[in-house]
């Protein structure tokens, strides 16, 4: 037998009170023998013995009542009551039900999902929970969502609650599970605590389980009886794992090419996979993939025609399969009527023409429409209003003033793009000083010195795409390999990259950066360590230069909201100036409207939605009256591999622990039976206390027997005689 509140047993010391009262109330008399009253002695002794027996019985009853009352308040229970007869004691169990609600549980097999089968298994558990027993229910995803916390079990209300549960488009984060379940179990007051964890045992999650996580689950089983209930199923599934802009300009009246990548996450080949391209929910392209081998990916090109300026919701969709959440991939394109570029030349002459020619390389009129380019000498820069341009290109600019540096920082932070080219006129010390603002460098690297990369024959090293999948590098994939190798760089700036920067292009055979990138606020900065002309390289006169530059400008004109988010990420609206409204509004895909306060942060005003829990298109608005900007939110495709561990693997994983794996309904019923093994005795003990008090009252009020009545008149005399 154990006690839920063992500290209350200290109150058992109160049993000393009736004993002390009994001792204090004993008559202390001086006995004097009197021969004339000796005939009464026998009767007095009989009466005294009767009174002492009565007092002793009352004392025992009172002490026993106190002890049983204290024990009842301490809530005793028997952990293993299997051998006790039915009806003895009260079964009490605290039950924690944890349900995996990640979107892999939506896998449909035989017209039922894993999630639905898990709900059915929960029904088996709840049928054996007593009304009033404490119950907790938690849904598990990237973060735990506690639906019910230590509530008294009501069968009808709990059934309604189960039917209202829905799958989340999140991935399961196993790291949070043991701690969450342990906390919920420890908060319960019950003779026995049981934890039921229902999950599909997704192999991609459990195979990478670290050692400490296994120890955490084992520790959980020490504080509560823990049962793993696998909900296994098929593993066929297709998922769109990528949707990216490959080529084209985000401008009104143009056509852009997007690449949609489909992965076969199942064990069987997928044939005739149809992929639809949509713009603002209208199908604009269809492609079919003949076959996708198990575990492999295939890509198709989707062409999107941008007829009007403004934001466009772009999606790639598959036909329905076993899991719906990962059948759609989304992004947003901000289409402009024109892309405005300011080219600032640090050297007089015709070198700026390389920039203009590269951006207009597609041919006369159409090129002019794609990019509107204005070239100015660097001495005229103060007269330019940067807000009129989407991208600013600085080529071989010797220096800028502190005021210009602040203006560039604000310009980029607001969501615009800056491209910086080296050259002979660069004052390295001045740029290093000017670009360091408020602990954040405007440029992605610190300039150290100019170095030559030419060999003995004066031939420079070729260019090497360090990050081939970067949007800037994607067009280079279509170029012949020998063309890249013929692109030679003779001089570079030796730089020390900032911790926040990324190297996009480098010098072949070395780690020397040629193109670096980093973020400043909502905008991006690109830094070339070579020149934009033929002085330091031959890149400017090859097809590589216009392809890279055009792609870079297109990439930089992508605002913050063109970058897709993932479920669980935060969404934000930034303002350079304080907005009129104190709240921004985010419209969720479900139709819910979420108001978020606008707060000042580092000379900016930001509205932040901490957690995007839905997949789809959100609409971020400054106010309810504003049109807003769409934001794409996608699921984590790591969850798309829905293959479960086998039953044997699940059993082996926990066989060295106290955790019980309930593979079948029969196993589950046994587990439920174990959850009801403990019995509490506090209520019967309270009834016993009441009974003892009733008996004590009856004995205390019991009248003397007849023989004692006859002596009643003489007792005072006898007592007086004893005291004479």
Give the structure's gist in a few sentences.
This protein is an alpha+beta fold and 724 residues long.
Question: What this model shows, in words?
Answer:
With 724 residues, this protein is an alpha+beta fold. The chain folds into five domains: 2-71 and 703-722, no CATH class; 93-232 and 646-677, Rossmann fold, CATH 3.40.50; 238-335, Immunoglobulins (Immunoglobulin-like, Sandwich); 339-556, 3-Layer(aba) Sandwich (Rossmann fold), CATH 3.40.50; 567-630. The strands form nine sheets. The protein has a nine-stranded mixed sheet, sandwiched between helices. A seven-stranded mixed sheet has the order 31-37-36-33-34-35-32, with no helix packed on it. The chain has a six-stranded mixed sheet with strand order 8-7-4-9-10-38, with helices on both faces. A hairpin with a 2-residue loop joins strand 22 (436-437) and strand 23. Helix 1 (16-24) runs antiparallel to helix 2, helix 2 runs antiparallel to helix 16 (682-700) and helix 5 runs parallel beside helix 7 (211-223). The relative contact order is 0.13. Mean pLDDT is 81; it is low at 81-89, 363-368, 707-715 and 717-724.
